[in-house]
Amino acid sequence: MENVLRPLIVVGGSVLLTLLIGWATDRLLRKADERHNETPLWGLLRRGRIPYMLVLCAAMLRGSYDQVRPLRRHGAGIGQTLTLILIGATAWLVIRIAAAVVETTYTRYARAHHDAARVRRVRTQVTLIMRVVAATVGVVAVAAMLLTFPAMRAAGASLLASAGILGIVAGVAAQSTLSNMFAGLQIAFGDMVRIGDTVVVDGEWGTVEEITLTFLTVRTWDERRITMPVSYFTSKPFENWSRGTPQMTGIVYWHVDHTAPVDLMRERLRDILRECPAWDGRDYGLAVTDTTPNTMQVRALVTAKDADDIWTVRVTVREQMIRWLTDHHPYALPRVNTADATLAPGFRRLNGNERDGDSSRHAHEPPRTGRG
Which residue, among 232, 253, 247, 301, has the nearest Cα to 273 in the 3D structure? Predict the structure, then answer.
């Protein structure tokens, strides 16, 4: 009877006590979260209740399983398993606690500062810091698990003797990975690119969605995701439209006929911008920037508070200006001129040839073509 009751008391008591302590701790954290709404720390700490309960249960069983006689036969294996579970659960709990503290710190910083660029920079830094912490804790936990095996401890002494050679080999083999990791740290603390920045990479316009230690993800305007190594941003040029102030100036081009009413187009541009909510009202302008034998190039300058709004302003101005020209000044649209060229003063057309007024004096001269 003792062989049945003792395992049930030890195992069942450990599980029941773990559930009781976990429930009480969760209740305390919930009350603290309700009382302190200004900080999300207590609510974030509740996410670690599962690893917390695993740590408690593994620790209790690790300390009491040897009191059960039937379990003594397999004491070494059970103890080893409980130790591994305890180490893994502890690492999991540490990562959850660190994430709660870092997220709380970032939330307070974001509430206290209204500079969007600075908040994105801090967000990028804390994200990479959390990844470094998680990777470090994971490596330490795995190392601690391996050291619990006697065979691994014996092999560790021989591995240390060749650590130099192994380091060189690992460095050569993981050169690309290490360069990406250092590039990720350089991006995080060098403020080169941040989560939420609008960038142009390889001709693709998009927003930085995720930054890790090894890769960076850009979400394009058509919802595609471009993933590239972070070392790209430290070795090649790219456009960061969010660097500094987010305000931007956009350009719209039209090719119109030489007879286009430029002054009226300038007034129409003003009216279009006044009715466009995305225009920030800072500046606008319209000028003729180039000409060709058949058309002239008109350029409009518009402003907006960020990259998204400048796109809206540009497409609105381009569409409404073309529609206005089509409805009110169709002659201003590009066209192929098939009319006869206008002759220079003093010339008249005789039998298809252009000659001056005294045709008899120049009767033996070759005909000259007038130019309009």
Answer: 301
- CA distances to 150, 154, 204 from 157, in Å: 12, 6, 52
Q: By three-state DSSP, how is residue 280 classified?
A: strand
Largest CA-CA distance found in the chain, in angstroms, rounded: 142
Identify residue 189 by its one-letter amino acid code.
Answer: F
pLDDT, one tens digit per residue, over 226-247 is: 888 877 777 788 888 777 677 8
**Distance, CA of 113 to chain centre:** 20
Question: Which residues are 285's β-sheet partners?
Answer: 301
Cβ contacts of residue 176 below 8 Å, gap of 6+? 229, 231
pLDDT tens digits, residue range 294-322? 899 999 999 998 888 888 999 999 999 99
Which helix (DSSP H) or strand (DSSP E) does residue 172 occupy?
A: helix 163-173
d(CA 171, CA 169): 5
CA angle 265, 271, 275 (to 5 degrees): 140
SS3 assignment for 224-247: CEEEEECCHHHHCCCEECCCCCCC
| Burial environment of residue 14 by CB neighbours within 10 A (0 to 12, 13 to 18, 19 or more) | buried
At 113, phi and psi to the nearest 5? Answer: -120, 135
Q: pLDDT tier at 355 (50, 70, 90 boundaries)?
A: very low
> How do beta strands 248-256 and 347-350 pair?
unpaired
- How far is it, in rounded angstroms, from Cα 60 to Cα 139? 25
187 CA to centre of own chain? 12
